[in-house]
Design a protein that fits this description.
Layout: H1 3-14, H2 30-42, E1 48-52, H3 60-75, E2 80-84, H4 88-94, E3 97-102, E4 105-111, H5 117-124
Parallel strand pairs: 1-2
Antiparallel strand pairs: 3-4
Helix pairs in contact: 1-2
Length: 133
């Protein structure tokens, strides 16, 4: 089996997209499209993956699948994943570090340990609606 085919199977398994790869794009939900796009992005085994607002518009099932897939990519496959997002709740369940950027400048960086909505609101003067992890 060719290297590309092995990678398709490996990443389609992680992202739960095997059954989606033969479907027409216009038949896929937003969450399915996001996962198929990430699968395609991984085929040549990059060292890192950059995702821009990956949780936007996703239903709860798609968010759970995406969170699980990103954790697997990071923890088991050792791929660095950089996520740009305003969805602090999604990030808190997905990443191990936060980098806060304001007007293009890094203003803070910290580990994802016991972060509360109050911490974020007090320090950065933004509203954060976090659910308990």
């Amino acid at each position: 089996m060719g290297e590309l085919k092995k990678n398709i199977e490996k990443y389609a398994d992680v992202l739960k997209t095997k059954e989606l790869l033969t479907r027409k794009v216009n038949t896929l939900s937003m969450g399915q499209k996001e996962r198929v796009t990430i699968t395609a992005s991984l085929l040549h085994e990059p060292e890192f993956l950059i995702l821009d607002e990956p949780s936007n518009g996703l239903d709860i099932e798609s968010r759970i699948l995406l969170t699980s897939a990103i954790k697997t990519l990071r923890e088991e496959m050792k791929i660095t994943v950089l996520i740009a997002s305003h969805d602090v709740d999604f990030l808190r369940k997905t990443v191990d570090r936060f980098i806060i950027i304001n007007n293009g400048n890094i203003v803070d960086e910290f580990a994802n340990i016991n972060i509360t909505a109050e911490d974020i609101e007090n320090k950065y003067k933004i509203h954060a609606n976090l659910k308990e992890a």
